[in-house]
Amino acid sequence: MEYTRFMADRVKTMKGSAIREMFKRMADPEIISLAGGNPASELFPGEELSKIAGKVLMTSPTLALQYGTTDGYPKMKECARSRAQKVNSVGENDEILIVTGANQGIDLSAKAILNKGDKIVVESPSFIGSLNAFRTYEAQLVGVKIEDDGMSMEELEKVLKADPGIKVIYTIPTFQNPTGTTMSAEKRKRMLELASKYDVLIIEDNPYGDLRFSGEDVPTLKSLDTEDRVIYVGSFSKILSPGMRLGYVVAPAPIAEKIEMLKQVNDVHTPMLTQLMCVEFMKKYDIDAYIAKNRELYGKKCAKMVESMEKYFPAGKVKWVVPEGGIFLWCECPTITDIAPVVNRCLEKKVAIVPGSNFAIDINAPSNMFRLNYSSATLEKLEEGIKRLGEVLTEML
Ligand SMILES: Cc1ncc(COP(=O)(O)O)c(C=O)c1O
Q1: Mutation to probe ligand 1, out of 17, 98, 103 (largest number of atoms < 8 A from CB)
Q2: Cα of 373 to ligand 1 centre, how many Å?
Q3: Residue of 205, 220, 246, 354 best suited for mutating to test ligand 1, as the one with most atoms within 8 Å of CB
Q4: Number of domains into which the chain is organized
Q5: Which of 35, 152, 186, 328 could be 352's S-S partner, Cβ–Cβ 3.0 to 4.6 Å?
Q6: Residue with CA at minimum distance from ligand 1 atom 16
Q7: Which of 253, 284, 315 is where one domain is finished?
Q8: Cα(129)–Cα(37) distance, integer angstroms
Q9: Which ligand 1 atom minimizes the distance to the CA of 106?
Q10: Residue 286: CB partners within 8 Å, gap ≥ 6?
Q11: Which residues line ligand 1 (CB under 6 A)?
């Protein structure tokens, strides 16, 4: 049976993430993945969380297993508030909502704001999950190039000036996915000035902000916002566990109210069991000490990746900027136009990387860039993966 005619126009042309497709092929244990965005599982507090899960189910079975409120379990909201307050990202007029991962927070924020055909500014390149969410609302993506210190403010002003229809800017200012870059404090202030001048909202997506391993912290856009223009989306995925699906949205009350209604339609509430587990974990253990361990490990892994790239990549053929935190490293190959054959050859050599086209506004345009992840593989596998990639690059560039 042919099903296309039954499908909504907005999903007909959608393409799944190549990363997810790659995951399906990664059942092969010999493949070294530098492709995903998984945090380091070797540090997951499995034992602590298994005891907590047992305790929660034993002592509070009704709370853990019954329906909960859509905005989140109150103690979990306090945990999220404490994380957001750490970076001064809760304003007087804001509400906090617990969401099922930052992904849901971004999706529902977009759903609350965007009509079909509305324009949204995004960094070019940007996180495919968010781009796909905006695409499902049939929004028009307006890409603004990203530089080593974040989105180009000249280009941003140009697009905002040219198009009064733009409603919102979506940005990942800290350790951006996929480029690993961080927007400077000056640019953050400028972005807020431009948002004010052209009367647009900002969605600030900050899942990696806690993962700095070198350099100085930069204030969040939300902390600099004096006009309640920023919707701040945080996550516990990269600081505790992505499988627990815990994120939060800090938004001006009228927007938060709409997001809450949309969430009710979407999944009623985020699972109570993982909310309760997170609350207990944060009560019993020092989450900042746990995050510090992750930061230290990511610093080591990033250094190992960079050292291996310097050793195994063909000299002068690949450009990259060393990140100060987060989990991604972005590479450009100026001597070619399309990285796709390299990515395919890499899979034959049993190493997985993601082509830059995945993060582009136009996913069909060829890209000479690729994204590497250093958080999930072990130090040994990182070196071996980069060695294999270096062999392919030497052969093909
Ligand atoms: C920039 C960005 N935003 C949001 C997410 C989604 O995070 P969560 O697991 O909290 O849904 C990711 C996940 O990789 C991401 O890279």
Answers
A1: 103
A2: 14
A3: 205
A4: 2
A5: 35
A6: 177
A7: 284
A8: 12
A9: 4
A10: none
A11: 37, 101-103, 127, 129, 172, 177, 205, 207, 235, 237, 242, 247
Domain range for 267 = 66-284
Residue 216, both tokens: 């100085």
Helix runs in the chain, H state only: 9-12, 18-25, 46-59, 61-65, 74-86, 101-113, 128-136, 153-162, 185-197, 221-224, 253-266, 272-284, 287-312, 340-348, 379-396
pTM: 0.96
Q: What is the pLDDT of residue 109?
A: 98
Instruction: Give distance in angstroms: CA of 84 to centre of ligand 1.
Output: 16
Which pLDDT score, from 0 to 100, does residue 45 have? 97
Predicted pLDDT of residue 10: 83
Per-residue pLDDT, 18 = 64
Give the whole-angstrom CA distance, residue 158 versus residue 124.
15
**Residue ranges of the chain with pLDDT lower than 50?**
none
Query: Sheet of 328-332: strands edge to edge?
Result: 319-320, 328-332, 369-373, 354-355
Last residue of a domain, one of 214, 249, 284: 284
- What is the dihedral angle through the alpha carbons of 240, 246, 248, 254, rounded to the nearest 10 degrees? -170
- Between CA 308 and CA 382 the distance in angstroms is 8
Asked if 192 and 247 sit in the same domain, the reply is yes
Give the pLDDT score at 390: 98
Nearest Cα neighbor of 79 from 262, 269, 285 is 285
**Same domain (yes/no): 108, 226:** yes
Tokens at residue 113, please? Answer: 């704001």
CA angle 294, 298, 304 (to 5 degrees): 150
